[in-house]
Design brief:
8 helices, 22% helix, alpha+beta, 6-stranded antiparallel barrel, 497 residues, 28 strands, 6 domains, single chain, 7-stranded mixed β-sheet
Amino acid sequence: MSEVRGLPIDYTNLGYEALRESMLAIARQTLPEWTDHSENDLGVLLIELFAYAADVTLYYQSRIAAQLFPETSDEPDALVQLLRLLGYELRSAPPATVELAVAVDAAQPLPVTVPAGTAFLAQSPTGERQQFEAVRDTTITGAGLGPVVAENLRWFLPVTAVEGRTVTDELLGVSDGAPNQLYPLGEGPVIGGSVTVTVAGPGGPTRWQEVRSLATAGPAQRCFATQRAADGRVTLLFGDGVNGAVPPRGSALDPVELLATYRVGGGPQGNVPPGTTFTSPVSALRRIVAPAGGTGGAAAESITGARDLAPRLYRAQDRAVTADDHVELALRTPGVGKARAVALNWNDVLLYVAPSGRVEQPSELLRRDLLAAFEQSRMAGTVLRVLGPEPVDVYFAATVRAEPYFLQEDVRAAVTGAAADLIAFDRVDFGEPIYLSRLYDALQSLPQVASLTVTQFSRSPDGGVDADGVIELEPFELARPGYAETIRLVITGGVPR
């Protein structure tokens, strides 16, 4: 607040009506001889014009100011560009990984080679077909096969495959030799880190690699950076000759073409259930199954998630010194859903990670990606070991009295779902205790439940109700989501079917 000749002015009132009334109030005090304040007066017309112009100007000034901070920015594209200034790009949807068991006929001539990139198709319960591709060349030899089993088959494990489909040599355009060339990719969603570009010029094709940022690239380095928009579209940015090389310019008769190869896919739909069967063009493979299902698939990073995570990563500055630094950087790695770092010594760190969506051991591919991500961030001399979680089952039993007019089967389904949701993957973390009071709150708030008595709340299948109502977990332990075999209910009242 300030004063103009004794008249208080509230500068937080930025609307048209407030500005008009403020200017009229100033006019009444400074020009008392001006008495006609009707809409027909020329002076009032000018005041209204100034109020309108000020209202529009102040609106856009407020909008611009709001977009300068991640906490207040509400324009997705503006927030993405702001985070890009901090060196932060939205994370794509990580693809799921499966360890496939494949069977060949006992009389099949060996060896059998499964080339890298071989497609494996799985059909989900909803009818959608999920494509996976082999990560590396795999050779099946007699030494690696198991004994002959039913249908005269011998099994081999594992063939590692990652969900997604490869787009090969997509024509991006023709280079004009200008700095900072931008080329959008034609398909999506693009899996992060999968893009390579071939620049086909008069001197022969050259391979250009993706880098995290062009800021650290040399003038002759053949590289590009990917920029991901709020809607998931990906654009490739090439260098300017100072930070990153510029794709050369060809001639009308011999243009320089840019060809992109990348993978599309990713997301939680790749987390196929255990026992899912696959098909493959490799005729020697009689049966293909994923015994443990798929792990690591997750949704693309949301604007809300980036708003929360970017400031924390900026504070870490790509260095892994403290335990929190290790956790933040691990969560940035595609496919990691939970992380916990435990320092045994100043140079010995245990990093416990769970793949996105499941309390299971991380795949070898995810372990490799994590170790590669920390190679430039960890302190010299520090030994980093990537381990999986120790799953903890929570056993829960209760007697539930249902409200009248509710079917007992519906009450059972509602209570089971609410109890399982309490320890769902997204609701718990490493070492986080589980409280009986929260279970009571969740179940008693259900409209189907009149009352309930918990008779078992323990991490042991033979346990009762812990005296303090808390199930304590070690730092490396993670509660496993509730399943039918760990939840037992006795329903009374209601309407039996």
